[in-house]
Design goal:
single chain; Non-ribosomal Peptide Synthetase Peptidyl Carrier Protein, Chain A; 3 helices
Amino acid sequence: MTEATPHTIAATVIDCVKAEVPAVPTDVEQDAELAAFGLNSMKVVEVLFGLEDAFDIAIDEDDVTEDTFASVNSIVTFLAEENNVADR
């Protein structure tokens, strides 16, 4: 299996977010606040499911915070630190 790179992780995160919040541009700044595009707590749950499927991981709901899902970078950091996604 090919090791995931930060770019492919970020691209997958953007795809998962865009599936629930189409207003997020494909070339969104990775530090941009996703809430500004319409990501809310209900949509975060759906993004969470998409991330679990995309990376074949289980995310503890206790780890789902506003800060975790604030931006693409915060999600990538969370996935790398808490779920070892970069090591897959």
